[in-house]
Amino acid sequence: KDNAKITDPPKEFKRIHSSTVPVTVYGALKSNGSIGCKYIRIDHQLPMAPIYELLVNDCGDTKPGLILSIYGGAKYFTMTEKLEKEIIRGIIDAAATSNAWILTTGVNNGVSKLIGEGISHYRLLKPNPN
């Protein structure tokens, strides 16, 4: 038994240290003056179809024209201010013209923070932001 090898350590770790949960924890995080950021807790093994249906239902049955999934860069994320502005402008323009959903980690640092700030600025500048 001491020499037993685990054939797939990540799978074994997930089996031992995680459990399946229903998609019942979701809502909006609000702070003073904020319209609220939506969040959802999901099981990493859950099929995507029910998650997609939940999101579409939450958006008034409006399906996205584009889904932008933006992750990474939480640590050691540096770039020039000009490049930051160009990236944000490109992402916001793409999202605004295509009825897009923007998915991030929701953490207030790195690229997620940059995206959040870009969305906030867009909402302030547009009379009827999507």
From TrEMBL:
GO BP term, example: metal ion transport
Gene Ontology CC: plasma membrane
Pfam families per record: LSDAT_euk
Domain TRPM SLOG: 38-122
Name of this protein: TRPM SLOG domain-containing protein
Lineage: Eukaryota, Metazoa, Spiralia, Gnathifera, Rotifera
Gene Ontology molecular function, alphabetical: monoatomic cation channel activity
Highest taxon of the lineage: Eukaryota
